[in-house]
Predict the structure.
Amino acid sequence: MQPNFILLYVENAPQSTQFYVHLLGRQPVEASPNFAMFALDSGVMLGLWSRHEVAPSAQQAGGGSELAFTVAGKSQVDQIHADWLARGIPVLQAPVAMDFGYTFCSEDPDGHRLRVFAPGA
């Protein structure tokens, strides 16, 4: 499993989207008032998510990010969740359906978020 989606929490998604449009020289492949997603040439996706809409809530004042891992389906999300629980990896959000897919959220020893999700599941 390899991380393939980077999420940055931002104060103002439209303003940050325009910043990254200019920085990356490309338009987002998805955009809404609270989220934008850019497809990078490497295959990695870069998402900008309004810190006010992040679930579970992000408590830190500045910055913030997630490493997100895309998997094939709901059963794989549940399988990885069970495996990570067995390993003692802290879970911040149990598996749940959200508007972007089926997901759960954990954290590494430094508090960086690790999200596993199945798009559209």
Q: What stands out?
A: Residues 5-119 form a domain with the 2,3-Dihydroxybiphenyl 1,2-Dioxygenase; domain 1 fold (CATH 3.10.180.10). The chain is about 20% helix and 40% strand.
